Amino acid sequence: MIAGAWGFAGSLAGRLALLLTIGMSISAITALFVAEEARRHDFAQFLDERLVVSAVDIVGRMTRAPDETAALLDHNQIIGAHRANPRLAVPTGSDSSLDAALRDRLGVRARARGLQVPWQYCFARIPYEWTHRAAGFFVPQLPGCWVVSYNDAKGQRISLAFDLPTLSLPPSAMLNPLFLLLIVAASGALSVVVSRLATAPLRRLTSASRAFARTIDAEPVAERGPSDVRETMVAFNTMQSRVREGVRERTRILASISHDLQTPLTRLRLRLEQVQDATLRDRLIADLGATLALVRDGLDLARSSESREEWSVIDLDSLLSALAEDAAEFGAKVHFVGGCGAQARVKPDALSRCVTNLIDNAVRYGGGADVSCTRRADAIEIAIRDYGPGIAEDLLPKIFEPFVRGSGDSMDNGTGIGLTIARAQAETFGAQVNLSNHPGGGMVAVVRIVG
């Protein structure tokens, strides 16, 4: 799990997820901060509007019935409005937003100003300040106090005090650390989903590339998704088709050459039969046979990378035992020594040609072969072991290259293409062929079928 997470972190999808998580988290948290500031601003405007409504009401009364309103203010008979405490100087500060609201409602000529002040401007003593209180009664929070000054119609400066119930801004959970952590977690989860969806075409293209690397007859990748993705898939399929046609054209050319060579080589064989010197005739015929074998093997090598055979699920033990019996019928010391009871989805003819080439190689250079099958945790392994002299360790990495053969008298036969053909046939169905020296002597070739 840790390895998978580390692999995802280093992938394109992981990097996209990280960038999306950071971007969405910053955007969401910034939006929350902006919303919180807007909420505070709206609450402050609401508080100012309460005071402006009260001030406009009292100023209107003072304009319509100045004597009556003044008497009510002097005797504190208007709830929420009073004469400003004459013993306290009118404050000189200002509240720009409140002043603008007052000027908008009372007019510019009133030169109205408002400012929140201590409670002493509204009350001579603290309300509810009694010596005796009933149990359970708590002194409520003091109301807020504001002083509003304005010029009346006569130009006289009047100061009024207003007390309004204290309102507190309700606490917000938007800036709670747990809430912010939830935003980051949700952004991360969404980013992973989005990044996986965004890179899905890339994963499909990777799978198609791997399939095409195994066989040129791989299925074309599905051309779906956004326009730019479809263009990429179309380009990949076009490349795949052109490579396939190029390989098939090469195979057709080699097949034509091989076919055209058959006639002159056959005539040459007939003419060699007329050579009077028997020793020379036999040597020439042997050279001609080697030339024919080289032509056939070269054609097989060209065809080995192009397999249009259908996939099938086969019983490996039945196939391997049949191949071993076929080789034994021709006098070779080939034995099927152990099965694995497994079935595999392969290209049967390609697997048969691969194993047959490995058996022929073991018989030619090792005198015989033991064929076996073993089931592993993640693969099935087919082993072909011989008891010959083996191969030098420094030659093993190059042994699958065309025309490369081991050293020694027993290695002088053959064209040096058999192992190359075996590996090419195995790759058509996604298998691997490896060759190594056995600890008990001889060589062992392993065909590893994954899945």
Could you walk me through the main structural features you see in this protein, from its secondary elements to its overall organization?
There is one protein chain. With 451 residues, this protein is an alpha+beta fold. The protein has a domain at 310-450: Heat Shock Protein 90, CATH 3.30.565.10. 52% of the residues lie in helices and 15% in strands. The strands form three sheets. The chain has a five-stranded mixed beta sheet. Strands 1-4-3-2 form a four-stranded antiparallel beta sheet. A hairpin with a 3-residue loop joins strand 8 (368-375) and strand 9. Helix 8 crosses helix 9 and helix 9 packs antiparallel against helix 10. The longest helix is centred in the N-terminal third of the chain and has 53 residues, at 12-64. It is rod-shaped, with a radius of gyration of 48 Å. The two termini are 21 Å apart. The relative contact order is 0.07. The model is unreliable at 408-412 (pLDDT under 50).
